[in-house]
């Protein structure tokens, strides 16, 4: 029996489903999850010693490549002086200052330990600031697993749950909690206008993934973003850009820098911690001033601003700020998509691709989808076969058709060529 199977059986005895986050369980694609023993650059190795090119990069954070020597050194240095103090540090100020420089809409920020905490806290803050209860989220956008956001959510919830009802996507979430959450279709400006016409004065916040990555990659239409910004401004609602995935991933300044939109609050995570548990939410000073200890919106965390995570984040932000980093990452990712698409064409398989910076989407459909409904209509059976073909050929894709993929600066030409060869092998079996 292979080590991955032995470990999976063992894991299931003490960990529900054998995994600590649902999508890792391979439920959509079937088969045995790979247990990873080490990673370096664009690669990781499973418990059987099989090497894979990684195309999820820890679901986004590892943009500089796994175990980047400079990040490892920074983490080792920080760890040698203690793991956590529960008191402020210079590193937190440096990280906050750097983030405010890179994302100018963030005038102040608060660090937390996960993206879930960031969005949950940003919503509480928006409600405290406006004195209103209603929030708007969009179908297929995932903002972490806080109760009020688990309605028609993407990511694992889109993969597993019956999200066809306008009800909580997870049991254990009271209807009373989600009754304050309005769910609208992504990219549907008239629906948004109508929601504001009816409820505008009661809407505390609109939260969105400015480029969705939890229902595969879906771009927003420009007129949709303009409607989101204009309506929130007009009705005094807080616009929350959830850039946990896109922040420092699609561009150095995040999706907002590409779109020319200034949100009121932004949530960050993933890349900003360089693979360590680290996230943040921040934005306009007058809104942030409502947070405890200045204001009466409570938010706290024992490990928030953890010095080891701060060291990893600071070094990662330094690396991605170097000249040419994002140009190179975008070029490589586009090259990869072009290569995969050409192989699909050779095999006469309908396949669409898209990418922004170091984030990409592969869709078994003839066109790039623009909505949650369109994504759920892509060819799931073909994706499953493709996933396993790629896995056998040594390329690790997200084990769900409803997730975006991620590259790193370590995915150089040679790595891309290897992926394209693997794609050719995998597509021969479809
Ligand atoms: C856009 C977005 N927001 C929030 C989250 C939640 O972050 P975390 O998993 O760190 O709680 C995620 C996670 O994938 C995400 O993609």
Give me a quick take on this structure.
This protein has 430 residues and is α/β, with parallel strands linked by helices. It contains 15 helices and 14 strands.
Structural commentary:
- The chain has 430 residues and is α/β, with parallel strands linked by helices.
- The protein has 15 helices and 14 strands.
- It has two domains: 3-67 and 323-428, Aspartate Aminotransferase, domain 1, CATH 3.90.1150.10; 69-320, Aspartate Aminotransferase, domain 2 (3-Layer(aba) Sandwich), CATH 3.40.640.10.
- 39% of the residues lie in helices and 14% in strands.
- The protein has a seven-stranded mixed β-sheet with strand order 4-10-9-8-7-5-6, sandwiched between helices. A four-stranded mixed β-sheet has the order 1-2-3-13. Strands 11-12-14 form a three-stranded antiparallel β-sheet, covered by helices on one side.
- Helix 12 (325-346) runs parallel beside helix 15 (413-428).
- It is globular and about 55 Å long.
- The chain binds pyridoxal-5'-phosphate.
């Amino acid at each position: 029996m292979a080590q991955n199977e032995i470990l999976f059986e063992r894991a299931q005895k003490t960990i529900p489903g054998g995994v600590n986050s649902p999508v890792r369980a391979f439920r959509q694609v079937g088969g045995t999850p790979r247990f990873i023993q080490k990673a370096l650059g664009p690669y990781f190795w499973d418990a059987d010693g099989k090497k894979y090119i990684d195309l999820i990069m820890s679901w986004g954070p590892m943009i500089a490549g796994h175990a980047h020597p400079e990040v490892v050194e920074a983490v080792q240095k920080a760890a040698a002086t203690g793991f956590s103090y529960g008191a402020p540090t210079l590193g937190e100020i440096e990280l906050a200052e750097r983030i405010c420089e890179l994302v100018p809409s963030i005038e102040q920020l608060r660090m937390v330990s996960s993206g879930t905490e960031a969005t949950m806290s940003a919503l509480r803050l928006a409600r405290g600031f406006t004195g209103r209860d209603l929030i708007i989220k969009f179908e297929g956008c995932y903002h972490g697993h806080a109760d009020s956001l688990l309605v028609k959510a993407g990511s694992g919830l889109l993969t597993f749950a019956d999200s066809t009802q306008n009800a909580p996507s997870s049991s254990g979430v009271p209807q009373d909690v989600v009754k304050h959450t309005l769910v609208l279709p992504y990219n549907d400006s008239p629906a948004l206008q109508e929601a504001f016409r009816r409820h505008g004065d009661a809407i505390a916040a609109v939260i969105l993934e400015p480029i969705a990555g939890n229902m595969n990659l879906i771009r927003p239409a420009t007129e949709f973003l303009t409607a989101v910004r204009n309506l929130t401004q007009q009705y005094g609602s807080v616009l929350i850009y959830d850039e946990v995935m896109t922040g420092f991933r699609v561009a150095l300044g995040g999706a907002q820098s590409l779109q020319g939109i200034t949100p009121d609050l932004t949530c960050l995570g993933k890349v900003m911690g360089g693979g360590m548990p680290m996230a943040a939410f921040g934005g306009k000073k007058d809104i942030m001033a409502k947070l405890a200890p200045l204001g009466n919106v409570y938010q706290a965390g024992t490990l928030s601003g953890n010095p080891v995570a701060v060291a990893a984040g600071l070094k990662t932000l330094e690396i991605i700020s170097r000249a040419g980093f994002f140009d190179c990452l975008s070029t490589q990712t586009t090259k990869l998509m072009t290569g995969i698409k050409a192989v699909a064409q050779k095999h006469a398989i309908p396949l669409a691709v898209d990418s922004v910076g170091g984030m990409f989407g592969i869709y078994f459909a003839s066109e790039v989808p623009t909505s949650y409904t369109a994504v759920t209509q892509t060819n799931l059976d073909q994706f499953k076969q493709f996933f396993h073909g790629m896995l056998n050929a040594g390329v690790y894709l997200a084990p769900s058709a409803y997730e975006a993929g991620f590259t790193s600066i370590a995915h150089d030409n040679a790595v891309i060529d290897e992926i394209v060869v693997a794609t050719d092998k995998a597509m021969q079996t479809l």
